[in-house]
Write a structure and sequence with these properties.
Layout lengths: L1 H24 L7 H8 L2 H11 L6 H25 L1
Length: about 80
């Protein structure tokens, strides 16, 4: 049970870290330096948290999924802000 809660917290943490980064990423043209920076800057943080929590590389797809969701949500928030002035 404790491991499941740790894993859920790690995935939610990956999502939460990436929401503001996705918000900032949305302001950059695709595949520019800024875009790549905001997409990838959370990776060392998530790796650090994964190792500290005691998980192996096998959960990387789950944390990657959380990061992608966070990037997407951040982009949605930015689009809504930009469209509503």
């Amino acid at each position: 049970m404790e491991g499941t809660l740790k894993l859920a917290g790690l995935i939610l943490g990956a999502t939460a870290i990436n929401v503001p980064l996705g918000y900032l990423r949305y302001a950059y043209e695709r595949f520019t330096f800024g875009w790549f920076f905001y997409v990838h800057i959370s990776i060392p943080i998530i790796i650090f948290l994964r190792v500290k929590a005691g998980f192996s590389w096998q959960i990387v797809p789950l944390t990657l999924g959380g990061a992608v969701v966070g990037q997407y949500l951040g982009g949605v928030l930015r689009r809504r802000k930009d469209s509503h002035g």
